[in-house]
User: Fold this.
Amino acid sequence: MKPIFLTQFLIEEQRAMGKITPDLRLLLEVVTRACKRISIAVGKGALGGVLGDAGTGNIQGEAQKKLDVISNDILLEANEWGGHLAALASEEMDHPHPIPEQYPKGGYLLLFDPLDGSSNIDVNVSVGTIFSVLRKPEGSSESTEADFLQAGTQQVAAGYCVYGPSTTLVLTIGNGVHQFTLDRELGSFVLTQRDMKIPVDTKEFSINMSNERFWEAPVKRYIDECVAGKDGPRGKDFNMRWVASMVADVHRIITRGGVFMYPLDSKTKDKGGKLRLMYEANPMSFIIEQAGGAATTGRERILDIAPNKLHQRVPVIMGSKNEVDLVTSYHA
Ligand code: P6P
Assistant:
């Protein structure tokens, strides 16, 4: 069968939906091209001289890996000349990054975690890039942090790229979730699954069990019931997976079902949670919901949250709809 590359997919989606402006198509093409460059840098491993710490820290107070900084620079460089963006924001940058004066500005805002799970990079475990697209609010001339503070329901598009055994891009533009696999010989993303759907039930949960003593009661109840297996209240055995790369864990869940949890716990309560809302939880929640799943903090739908800070953190429970609904009901 004739392969469908990303550009043809976007053109056909534009004909079908009429929501993909030329600037949005350009944005998606340059971001995915940046992901190809990141994939090459990550794939070099120890041969690339890019493993280990950069010797710098980000606003989260986390040591930056060399590849965090390299990936961030690749995304900045890919997006500054196109005239499609008003500004960019990244986990690795304290404040929004303006488009350089010599280039025209456009109507979109791009947010990203350039290399999520980078603590895994030095041990050769899958990592990934997560991105989210918003419209620049009308009227505002210079883009400020406030322009980015829009609820997840305002996202125009969202996606991630997993740098694993294959380099796989998963994308939504509000009309389903679609998967593209990188053909390394051609250097092109090829459509490999249209309209991905998450099974509404699952037997697989994903959580960092070492935090058990810090969990709130509803989460402890839910996990205890899963661990109790078929002799317990759930009446079936569960399996557990925790890659500690959100992109890898969420991709597994979108592919075969499951529930991913980084819930509020007494360790992260004062920060509001572990994962970041604007460029981790929101894009993943948009994708998960578009694939028929659900995504809450345990107490509210993630996409409805009105952000108040660019780097704010939230609790995350997302994946197979019936499991997320059950965990959320325990919080009520
Ligand atoms: P922990 C990676 O650092 C990350 O932000 C997510 O990708 C991942 O799900 C989580 O943190 C892992 O956290 O506490 O298990 O190391």
